[in-house]
Design a protein that fits this description.
Structural class: alpha+beta
Order of helices and strands: HHEHHHEEEEHHHHH
Shape: elongated
Strand order of the largest sheet: 1-2-3-4-5
Strand content: 5-15%
Helix content: 40-55%
Length: 322
């Protein structure tokens, strides 16, 4: 009888212990479930907050791009434009005709373009420090873009500052292309000229001109390259290394240009003396031309912003279209 009672007690004790363990396990599971729920809620809340922040940022960029008068130019605001400009630069330094055609939304091969890119490849080595200053264009999904960069020419150590512009249009398939400046509408041309005449753009162009002037004066090899690319045809130059006299002449021309620019600046702004302003050069204005522009240099001066945006290297004067 005692043995049976002992067995029953042991059996009941085991059942009780097992029941307690089951209860504890259930409690632990419930606790972990609650913690997981909290983590999930926090994660979901975080994802919602991040999405809202990103949406607000996009909306802010769109708003600023749409109102130049209030917000000015936006730096690298549209990733697709940054990529497009990078592809243009890559096509110039590699001589890639297909890539350049894609940049301009073209498909038909162009022998003149191909020859021009082969020439460019001989001189352009690298683009760096590229910054795109952007604002909305006249029509929906169009943009006016000012491009600041440094150019590394082959066989020249000193970088050349460059400042130019292009008009970008988003296509129906979602791609972005450079629009031929000679195909801009009257309204678009007027808009380009208006923005180019703004103080913000003038300051950017002046800064780039000054940097180029300093570089040209300090490096005779860059002066040589600058003179070569200023000529009507690179193919007319038989050798890259010109004579010492021609080198001095190139630098002298740059200095004269600098003095002319500083004189204008002195008259129109602060009235500083000529020597303190003698670092700013004046270089012909021009735009990024397209693959089908067969115009001469005199024709290119009729493009938008000729009198307002000045590029800072003559190398861009013979652009993708020539």
């Amino acid at each position: 009888m005692k043995l049976n009672l002992k067995f029953k007690f042991t059996k009941n004790k085991a059942i009780i212990i097992f029941s307690v363990l089951v209860v504890l396990l259930i409690v632990i599971i419930l606790i972990f479930d609650k913690r997981n729920d909290k983590k999930s809620n926090v994660k979901a809340s975080s994802e919602v907050t991040t999405a809202q922040t990103q949406t607000e940022q996009v909306e802010s960029v769109v708003m600023k791009l749409a109102d130049f008068d209030k917000y000015g130019l936006q730096i690298d605001a549209v990733p697709e434009i940054t990529t497009l400009v990078s592809n243009y630069q890559k096509a110039k330094i590699t001589g890639d005709e297909k890539l350049m055609l894609t940049v301009y939304g073209r498909t038909v091969e162009d022998e003149a373009l191909k020859a021009k890119l082969e020439e460019d490849k001989r001189y352009y080595e690298k683009f760096s420090d590229t910054v795109c200053y952007e604002t909305k264009g006249v029509v929906e999904d169009s943009y006016l873009v000012f491009i600041s960069s440094k150019i590394k020419f082959r066989f020249v150590d000193t970088l050349a500052s460059n400042f130019t512009w292009t008009y970008v249009q988003k296509q129906s398939d979602g791609s972005f292309i450079f629009k031929d400046p000679f195909n801009l509408t009257t309204e678009e041309t007027a808009y380009v000229n208006k923005i180019s005449a703004s103080n913000e753009v003038k300051e950017l162009a002046a800064k780039s001109r000054k940097e180029l002037a300093e570089a040209v004066i300090s490096d005779a090899e860059l002066a040589n390259m600058y003179k070569i690319l200023s000529n009507s045809s690179v193919s007319d130059v038989k050798e890259t290394n010109e004579s010492v006299d021609e080198t001095k002449e190139s630098v002298s021309e740059a200095q004269i240009s600098i003095i002319e620019e500083s004189t204008k600046s002195e008259t129109s702004t602060q009235g500083e003396n000529l020597s303190s302003e003698s670092e700013t050069s004046q270089v012909e204005s021009q735009s990024l031309e397209t693959t089908e522009s067969k115009t001469t240099k005199s024709e290119s001066t009729e493009s938008p912003t000729t009198s307002q945006v000045e590029t800072t290297t003559a190398s861009e004067e013979t652009s993708a279209s020539n």
